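Q: What does the predicted 3D structure of Cysteine desulfurase look like?
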Amino acid sequence: MDGLLPTDLRRDFPYLDQELNGHPLAYLDSGATAQRPIAVLDAERAYLEHANAAVHRGASTLVGTSTTAFEEARETVARFVGAGSREIVWASNATDAINMVALGMADASAGIGGPETEIFRLGAGDEIVVTEAEHHADLIPWQRLAAKTGATLRFIPVNDHGTWSIDDAASVIGPRTRLVAFGHVSNVTGFLAPAAEVVELAHRHDALVMLDACQSVPHRPVDFAELGVDFAAFSAHKMLGPTGIGVLYGREHLLDALPPARTGGSTITTVTMESASFLPAPQRFEAGTQPVSQAIALAEAVRYLDGLGMQRVHAHEEALAGLLVDETSRVAGVRLVGPPPGSPRAALVSVDVPGVHAHDVGQFLDSQGIAVRVGHHCAQPLHRRLGLRATTRASAYVYTTADEVRRFAAALAEVRGFFGVGA
């Protein structure tokens, strides 16, 4: 692991040092929310104890100190994803960030804004393209946008593994496409999307690209400028940070043109009783009181990950991904969802145990001290395409050990016998 040893890292995560139902906790639900190291907890606490003040409001020394810390956090996060500081907008989570773009495009399509919003305006005959594998957060906002504007929502189909290819994308993306939205990494299958190729294809047709990067930014080096995406979203709580804050990335000139989805204090230059003029990005999108302490904590999470080295994080998770697939594939009577063994994937696996509901599988694993995710993982269309109502998902992160993966597989092997299913 080139020095990245989970057993050494675990001392930084107090949460992991506990028992679950009489067993040492094996936390395999980082795809839903990651645990926070002491450094992140301390950074937020220190800010609240010594620097808490309203940012961008007033001219006092305390406000200046707080605002400086707030904007330095933005710069730290921007560098982490290859962006400029004006290209990073704080949101309440990634879902909120995606909705900012969808709602802004709906306003532009309704005639709000000047000629600079023309690139966002949709109408009958225009097409929005998503994939059949999308998280609901990257599907429902585009459904609503299509309904509001008269545009057509189309989707890139998945195969029996729940994956898709650039050829599949090319069969759907075309001259009428105005926006392509897709997940960088599937939260169900671990599939790695051909992001750069999709961006090139979409831009060839003058379409915008929105990337759901929730399952990629925490786990591998990601550079949005290098990928060429127009917009992207990710959440702090999946990358060792706090809840209550997410990030919208947008190319600077696009953010400056996009109508803000929410309006109010701190977003404006001039207000009359009849109209308002808005600041440039990112402030034009950050109405009201901001998640200041959360931004401070997210920046500390970024520094923690930078300290580990994202290449080393990626290498560690690649090894765990291989182990997850190998161990799970050996369990009789279990269906592994997603790319077949030997294919690239993120460090997560979703499984189906025929004859045993995913919730029951999860409860049995819980009784063995293993925390996983069960359900449709906010991806009902994908599960429906695969003939499933729910799956059980195990997801790893920097603090996950090989022993925990083996414990998961060993417990999974006991599920059918425990419920009296099969021979």
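A (community wiki): The structure tokens above were generated from the sequence. DSSP finds 15 helices and 17 strands in the chain. The chain has a mean pLDDT of 96.
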